[in-house]
Amino acid sequence: MIRSKLRTLLLGGGSAAVMLATALAPATASASPASARPAAGFWSCTVPPGYTYSATQNTLSCGGSGFRTYYFVQPPSDGLWACTTADGFTYSATQNTLDCSTGGGFRTKYLLRTPQTGLWACTVPSGFTYTSTQSTLDCSTSGGFRTKYLLRAF
């Protein structure tokens, strides 16, 4: 008798856990890609001035006939992997990715960095010079070695 009551309780508890997991699963599975991004970002049909984008997807929501590109736009910031470079920033690494594709195929994504003395960067921004260089694949946008610069403000 005690065993059957215990079995009933365990089965009832297990069923409740399965129902709870089932109820929660669609909510997490249907989360939009934007939910994993910082709050400052949003999906847009265009990239507003002063913003960059870090992902794309095809959508029918942006007007016209057929699919259009939908951009996940964000203000540029230090440490952001972005699909475009931004004024006031340099970049310290690149990657070849489908994240930024606007028409199919791989595109370059840039690791944005705020310029500062001592930073190894792929470009020399205005207001800076460099004190050393290295040949690296870090900055490659089309394959092959590129020059990386050790920045110094002047």
Number of helices: 1
H/E series: HEEEEEEEEE
Widest sheet: strand ordering: 1-3-2
**What structural class results from the helix and strand content?**
alpha+beta
Quick one: biggest sheet? 3 strands, antiparallel
Question: What are the low-pLDDT stretches, counting only 5+ consecutive residues below 50?
Answer: 3-38
Rounded Rg: 24 Å
Q: State the end-to-end CA separation.
A: 85 Å
Helix content: 10-25%
How many β strands by DSSP?
9
Overall morphology:
elongated
**Into which percentage range does the β-strand content fall?**
35-45%
3D structure, described in words:
This protein is 18% helix and 35% strand. The protein has 154 residues and is α+β, with helices and mostly antiparallel strands. Mean pLDDT is 81; it is low at 3-38.
How are the SSEs ordered, and which strands pair?
Blueprint (H helix, E strand, L loop, with lengths): L1 H28 L12 E3 L7 E8 L8 E7 L6 E2 L7 E8 L9 E7 L6 E2 L6 E9 L9 E8 L1
Antiparallel strand pairs: 1-3, 2-3, 4-6, 5-6, 7-9, 8-9
What attributes does this structure have?
single chain, 154 residues, alpha+beta, 3-stranded antiparallel beta sheet, 18% helix, disordered N terminus
